[in-house]
Amino acid sequence: MAEDKTVGQLVVDVKRDVTALVRTEIALAKAELKDDAKAAGIGAGMFAGAALFGFFALMLLLVGGSLALALVLPTWLSFLIVGVLLLVVAGVLALVGKGRISKVRPPERTIATAKESAQALKGVR
């Protein structure tokens, strides 16, 4: 049956098959990266939360230190305690965010099948 096809028909068939292969590779990459992208987004959100809490902690520590130096009243101690607690929260969020981001992997199956496809196409020549 392949002997009955013209060169033009064979080129059309190859083009159709390559297009289908590329579309399948793209679909596989999307499926494989979906979960990793979600984990990376959550990790980035945790880093943003850590930065926000760190900023608030710094502001409270600065205000607390200022009040301690200016007034030397017990009120400053409450500002310092709250500031330290916010730094602890920021540290926990940063560690959780780092753990989430470190779990993100490259699309291994997509890379493997793309390499196989490239090898197969090289063999066609």
What is the radius of gyration? 29 Å
Task: Describe the global form.
Answer: rod-shaped
Count of all domains: 1
Strand content: under 5%
| Share of helical residues | over 70%
- What is the CA–CA distance across the termini? 21 Å
Low-confidence stretches: none
Mean pLDDT: 81
Number of strands: 0
The secondary-structure class comes to mainly alpha
Q: What is the helix tally?
A: 3
Secondary-structure element order, N to C: HHH
Describe the sheet with the most strands. none
General description of the model:
With 125 residues, this protein is an all-alpha fold. It has one domain (8-118). It has three helices and no strands. 88% of the residues lie in helices and 0% in strands. It is rod-shaped and about 100 Å long. The longest helix has 65 residues, at 7-71. The model has no long low-confidence stretch (mean pLDDT 81). This is Phage holin family protein. The chain crosses the membrane at residues 47-70, 76-96. InterPro entries: Phage_holin_3_6 (IPR009937).
Characterize this entry briefly.
By secondary structure, this protein is mainly α. It contains three helices and no strands. Helices cover about 90% and strands about 0% of the residues.
